[in-house]
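Consider the following assembly input.
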Amino acid sequence: MHDTTLKALADRFGLTLRGDPDHRVGSLATLASAGPGDVSFLANPAYARDLAECRAGAVIIGEDLAGRWSGNALISKNPYASWARIAAFLQPLPAAEPGVHASAVVAEDAQVDPSASVGPQASVGAGARIGRNVVVGPGCVIAEDAVIGDDSRLVGRVYIGPQCRLGERVLVHPGAVIGADGFGLAMDAGQWIKVPQMGTVVIGDDCEIGANTTIDRGAIEDTELAEDVRLDNQVQIAHNVRIGAHTAIAGCVGIAGSTHIGSYCMIAGACGIGGHLSICDKVIVTAMSTVLDSITEPGEYGSGIPARPHARWKRILVRLGQLDDWVRRLRRLERNQS
Amino acid sequence: MHDTTLKALADRFGLTLRGDPDHRVGSLATLASAGPGDVSFLANPAYARDLAECRAGAVIIGEDLAGRWSGNALISKNPYASWARIAAFLQPLPAAEPGVHASAVVAEDAQVDPSASVGPQASVGAGARIGRNVVVGPGCVIAEDAVIGDDSRLVGRVYIGPQCRLGERVLVHPGAVIGADGFGLAMDAGQWIKVPQMGTVVIGDDCEIGANTTIDRGAIEDTELAEDVRLDNQVQIAHNVRIGAHTAIAGCVGIAGSTHIGSYCMIAGACGIGGHLSICDKVIVTAMSTVLDSITEPGEYGSGIPARPHARWKRILVRLGQLDDWVRRLRRLERNQS
Amino acid sequence: MHDTTLKALADRFGLTLRGDPDHRVGSLATLASAGPGDVSFLANPAYARDLAECRAGAVIIGEDLAGRWSGNALISKNPYASWARIAAFLQPLPAAEPGVHASAVVAEDAQVDPSASVGPQASVGAGARIGRNVVVGPGCVIAEDAVIGDDSRLVGRVYIGPQCRLGERVLVHPGAVIGADGFGLAMDAGQWIKVPQMGTVVIGDDCEIGANTTIDRGAIEDTELAEDVRLDNQVQIAHNVRIGAHTAIAGCVGIAGSTHIGSYCMIAGACGIGGHLSICDKVIVTAMSTVLDSITEPGEYGSGIPARPHARWKRILVRLGQLDDWVRRLRRLERNQS
């Protein structure tokens, strides 16, 4: 943990300081719980009410709300981003020790950069390449010929399949499976025949892959994530999907095979997106929606239904089932009236 | 496996015995397959039809249904709970051998109680503490400074993140990931900036966490499960969620960040619950519903739609899309008629 | 990788060759990217447009479309199945080395066939039996008394619970958990009591289990998959479910306890299927549908709603909430008119 002055923080992160430049801070807290040694932040106006009682050593805040806070302020155009950077600076992750743990298994012809850390019980397959400062956490499995780019971190118990390639600064959370076979089956004479999945997974720089998320290898060509794609936990990406740069996908979303998603899209939690679709850039899909058609216009889309009290919802379901009948009756009324 | 008399079972579990007190039983079976050495049970009246042919050595049964069974009966006010206790007594889990397996890796300054069992290929990080009688199954990863309370059991291949704390008698199934980073991102100049996730996960006594379930660490403060919370498989709990005591959540449910769920709630399978909501005590959410608003009254809520034959469902979808138009036409009819 | 002539391929796989029998091929590619050494295929007529520019050494193609391709053709009644077989033949998986890796832990009384391969960091529990040519990949955990049939492959980081039995040629992808406890709870005096889960999981020959998929052990009797059942990633199968032969289930589907699903069913992605249901043979469920009633007739069923632009969808939601009111107004109109 660092301990520094507000002036040093303002200088380092390009913020306007209002208050005591020599005040020292070293830790981080919410507005409600912060003390004099803490930095806090206000990004969501709903929390402005917490400013009244706030005892933080400094608050990262936008110019619009700074008037509501009389203490030390680090004024930012983007308080949440400034918070992200200052938090990472004040509480950096502990550095992993370089080298291969005695219990890890590294194939003879795998290349592990000396600056990389391979943790307990990890295994690295033949021909795999582990870049500079990479952290391969405990229990990870890196299959043969996989490539992990510089400064990437596999937190623990991650599986990377054969020939898959991760860019630089990729962060993969525990339980993620990158490069299992896609779901390819041909029916013949009443039996399923497995279709070999010969592509790989290629992940761009600065991507983040959530816990227990799965990304299948391509059938012939590769499954691809461009740079800065962010996947939350338990996301399922099927074979040959392509996801554009800076797209963020929340937890429990499933994307079926061969669908292409543009850049700067945001898919909310638990959505299902069908196969062989094309979703253009800057599409937002709201929670628990089902996307079954390609989308060619940026904007917000959805089909999720908010829950209601059960009795009311049951009545709506009955009406929904009768819709066709009601429409018929309505048409008859129109005919009679005309 | 124990072998005991019906009298001993009735005495131990506070049940009323009807029949032969000296009859010996040692195993467990369904009504349909039980033989004279087996205990069975009837909790769901739908299975009362199986009593006719039943050959069980004893049936755990409620007073209301006991008249329909002529054999030995262990009469209980709560047959299912009595079954749970008797089954656990007659077929206890094999005890794990205390001690650290030769292949496990335990950091020098980790504390492992001598009564605990650390299985093959497990790893325990620096500063972690493993309590009395804890079982850390094969392939588990316990990160630095995590705390596992007495009598807890991590079945195998479980990941517990840094500083996370599990209470006593917590049961965690394989593939669960507790304490991965929450999904916190700030957009700045067209790039995502990762927001450090500095909170942990705190899990109360007697919780059960299903296979491949994920519980994210808090952003600043902690993600919290109170005591006796029961999560099924593939549940996703985002950062800063809090779940009250005795709440049960079925498989494939996702709960978005900062939502608070009360005590004694029951969330059925595959529901999605939005972020920053507050759900009060004793709320039931039916299967595959989407909760997007806070709930302040106990009761049952839902928005799931039961599947219909495809042709019929397609027609309903068409009508759904035209609803606005039909409402307009209905209003015109009303105007014309008045 | 094999290298062979088109005549040899046609003979081996029972195809009709049109073109140069001595042409040599050894690799595989899409129509759009194939060169003279590649075999490609056309199964989906939508890709027939790629034939015009195609440079493949041979195309596996149906008789109906063969006229649109002037190059070497391997004519098949089922081009996709022929492709699956030829791809597996030309690019076979690298054979795993028989034997137990030095870092693996095998219990003394476990039986591992000498032809089987047990990879790095794997562990095999007491009494487990590993059949001929089985591959137990890196980091797998096979619990006590589990049985893995001949020629099965657990790719890596798979968990197989106590007493679970896999048939022959079963393929299990990373992160899958087979045989965790089912979700069985009895409420008593305000506390949940865990109901012991004493059944196992039995999986038939030729099944495939996707990455991070979970299959719970039965409560008393077993959870069962018949032969040739294919599960995609992140599928959740609860206790005592039975699935008939040749049924395929796409990603993110959840099936609640004790439901029986017939043979040759196809469940599309992200569906939720309720508990204690019976689904007959040859049922198709479309994506993101909720099945809450038993199905007794083969055919297609669904309740998924395709996403729309948000503003339009919000208006439909409003109308949906008012449905009951509109129906009442419609009835009044009918009364007034009559």
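Chain C has four helices and 40 strands. Ask yourself how this observation constrains the way the partners meet.
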